[in-house]
Specification:
Belongs to the glycosyltransferase 20 family. The chain has 459 residues and is of the alpha/beta class. It is built from 16 helices and 16 strands. Helix 8 packs across helix 12 and helix 10 packs parallel to helix 11. It binds 6-O-phosphono-beta-D-fructofuranose.
Length: 459
């Protein structure tokens, strides 16, 4: 078996890994560790333009080589902030109103993909298998193929793939589809995403079905499948039950006897946080007797802060928090806590275990691993309730959650009421059914299934 080469926009360098790293990084690190490998990507730094080619930053940690490069400010702006996060991200999350298309950004996106491919190419060995991640790198395989790279190339899209009529709003969508077919294996979070890709491409060109899941288009043969990403429920459960840091005693006290709602995500408009605040307000209006007995904590660390739409939503949340607390709070009760801060994952899992309800209502989401982490962190004998948007990929599997339409405030308000009044036996029952799914579809199974399929392409 050859080396595994993982390519992603950001890479988790060794000093950030394992303990503090998220589940995905840990899942990938385990695979790289087991079979030996290379992790290649951007090191998160911006460099000065010196006119000289900057050497790659490399690091060896046991079985894994890390190779990373920095970006110039111009590359970062065009490739990352503009095309990745102001064109693809909003469009793929159905927010065409937030797309700001510029041809210069598209060209920068292609150029940076080519630059990254050029840097990776000399590091490749003939029997490597290459696994590329996410929307920053849709054209990466095509860029590598220009160097006659013959190794199998797999791609996994962590975010949703939009319906064709949404995709078609992007001026370069045909080129995006064509470039994506340079991968040998295209993996999506759900069958809905994989089908959306297939119908978009079928509308554009002649697609030959070799067999179910294997297609030919634009002179390329590619495999297409869904691989719902999972978590490692056992390690999350351990983190959630682990020794309580001193900080935790204070948090436990602050949470008090009220019913506690928790939500945690990057501050992103796709997560539906302002809509959720309004749904919580509807709950306070509809069930006034519950005021004083409930507390909603929203953790949302700033993300992509240089992009205008992210600055706007941050201001919106600050305003809404003040308005809701000003309107409903009393001298002794604050209904909504909004924490624009990063929380250590180990602490977060403990907080999840102490809370009664997770309110996870993205307007669109590829999967939503927080929903799965919340479930895994619970005490199975007395678990909390998951309220989940039907537009998160996780809703395809977690049908025992209280599934809601995040745009429907009344429905979300009713779900909060249902959650706080749900009997313990119903909570236990729903939780157990969802845990069985989580135990089956783990992060390990996700990567093993994907890699098995990719290795089979070799045979
Ligand atoms: O959800 C897509 C994703 O790329 C995740 O894989 C990642 O955790 C997150 O976005 C981080 O975004 P950024 O690198 O822009 O901060």
């Amino acid at each position: 078996m050859g080396r595994l080469v993982v390519v992603s926009n950001r890479i988790a360098l060794p000093d950030h890994s394992k303990n503090g790293a998220g589940g995905l990084a840990v899942g990938l690190l385990d695979a790289l560790q087991e079979q030996g490998g290379l992790w290649f990507g951007w090191n998160g730094e911006i460099r000065e333009i010196t006119g000289e080619d900057e050497p790659l930053y490399t690091e060896q940690d046991k079985n894994i080589t890390y190779a990373a490069c920095s970006l110039t400010q111009n590359d970062y702006d065009l490739y990352y902030s503009q095309f990745s996060n102001t064109v693809i991200w909003p469009a793929f999350h159905y927010r065409l109103d937030l797309v700001e298309y510029q041809r210069e950004a598209w060209e920068g996106y292609l150029r940076v993909n080519q630059m990254l491919a050029e840097k990776l190419y000399p590091l490749l060995q003939h029997n490597d298998v290459i696994w590329v991640h996410d929307y920053h790198l849709l054209p990466f395989a095509a860029a590598l193929r220009l160097h006659q790279v013959k190794q199998p190339l797999g791609f996994f899209l962590h975010i949703p793939f939009p319906a064709p009529e949404v995709l078609m709003a992007l001026p370069d969508y045909q080129e995006i589809l064509r470039l994506m077919t340079a991968y040998d294996l295209l993996g999506f979070q759900t069958e809905r995403d994989a089908q959306a890709f297939l119908s978009a491409i079928t509308q554009e060109t002649d697609v030959v079905t070799v067999e179910k899941g294997i297609y030919q288009a634009y002179g390329n043969t590619f495999h297409l499948h869904d691989y719902p990403i999972g978590v490692d429920p056992d390690s999350i459960s351990k983190l959630a039950q682990g020794p309580l840091p001193p900080k935790m005693q204070a948090i436990r006290k602050e949470l008090g006897d009220a019913k506690n709602i928790i939500a945690c995500e990057r501050l992103d408009y796709s997560k539906g946080i302002p809509e959720r605040f309004l749904a919580y307000e509807s709950f306070l209006e509809k069930y006034p007797e519950q005021r004083g007995n409930i507390r909603y904590t929203q953790i949302a660390p700033t993300s992509r802060g240089e992009v205008q739409a992210y600055q706007a939503i941050r201001h919106q949340l600050e305003t809404e928090t003040g308005r809701i607390n000003g309107k409903y709070g009393t001298m002794s009760w604050t209904p909504l806590y909004y924490l624009n801060q990063h929380f250590d994952r180990r602490l977060l899992m403990k907080i999840f275990r102490l809370t009664d309800i997770a309110l996870i209502t993205p307007l669109r989401d590829g999967m939503n691993l927080v929903a799965k982490e919340y479930l895994a962190a619970q005490d199975p004998a007395d678990p909390g309730v998951l309220i989940l948007s039907k537009f998160a990929g996780a809703a395809c599997e977690l049908t025992e959650a209280l599934l809601v339409n995040p745009y429907d405030r009344d429905e979300v308000a009713r779900a909060i009421y249902q959650a706080i009044t749900m009997s313990q036996s119903e909570r236990v029952d729903r939780h157990a059914k969802m845990m069985a799914i989580l135990q089956h579809q783990t992060i390990t199974r996700w990567r093993e299934t994907f890699l098995d399929d990719l290795y089979q392409i070799l045979e």
